[in-house]
Hints:
Elements: H1 10-24, H2 29-39, H3 44-54, E1 60-62, E2 69-71, H4 83-92, H5 104-113, H6 140-155, E3 157-164, E4 170-183, E5 188-197, E6 200-207, E7 211-220, H7 227-234, E8 240-244, H8 250-257, E9 262-268, E10 273-279, H9 285-293, E11 299-303, H10 305-324
Antiparallel strand pairs: 1-2, 3-4, 3-7, 4-5, 5-6, 8-10, 8-11, 9-10
Helix pairs in contact: 1-2, 2-3
Amino acid sequence: MELFSEIYNCYYQVVARILEEASQATISPAEMARIAEKYGYDESALTIIPHLLDGDWALLTPDEGGKNFASRLSQPVRVPFTSLQKSWLKTLLEDERIGLFFTDEQLELLRQLLADTAPLYDPSAFQYFDHYQDRDVINSSFRKHFQLILKAIEQHQTLKLSYYSVKGRLMEFTYLPCRIEYSAKDGKFRLYALYRRRNGWRMDILHIGRILKIEETGYYIEEPIDMDQFTEDSLCQEPIVIEISDDRNALERTMLHFSCYQKKVERIDETGKYRCSIYYDKTRETELLIQVLAFGPVVRVLGPDSFLNQVRERVSRQQKLTISF
């Protein structure tokens, strides 16, 4: 059984947004394509727009010139929640991490709205055996810091951070927070933040759990900053290359697992397998190594040699431990 009904999928959401704009003023095919590219997949515009323009989906009416279109609907599109979706949301409320993104008042309102809904499952039914023990502790201090960082990212405000380095030294710098990233493997939130130097900006990656204190500076950055520039600069020049089997739904599983990485995927025609090149931050190499090994025989590392040697070393070490038992 699918968790979310097909009528709630991406294509329906794209069409709903097109109809919403077309109800306020006529829109052109180019504007429809822009909406489809923003809220859909790469191929969404090629799939959706022809159906709308040709009248297969009789939802738009052309103007006198036939170049722009208006919505035929008299009311905006509203999609109600299903019982299954409500159960899923009720389950999410049981996760302590959801409190990082909402205020106490918002959480209480959500609990009231879902008071008569049973959770989809009990989170305590799951036992995790492959997680790190030093995961982030979500307490009131962590939550306060997290929400201050979220606010700073939205407002482009710099923050003065006091935090402990990897070696335990207390550091203090003023940063421009840019992005928060979560690692499910080690259960930690990372902050990508920019530090201004004389010759420009530098990107640092900080563990939010190591932050001791945050002070708002009241200083806002108005100049445009291209985050992709710093992300690309920190990527390794030579990606790791893996071969993905077509067994056990391996392609879908790996693409979901490695969704946070920049990658290139191509099908190997003669074997039916897939070759995937993953570009990653060098500081996260060990984490990526563990993630790749977790897929077992459905993923084979092809290179580079430096990464392949680490795989061999890990497998050899594991084999010795197994034999000793």
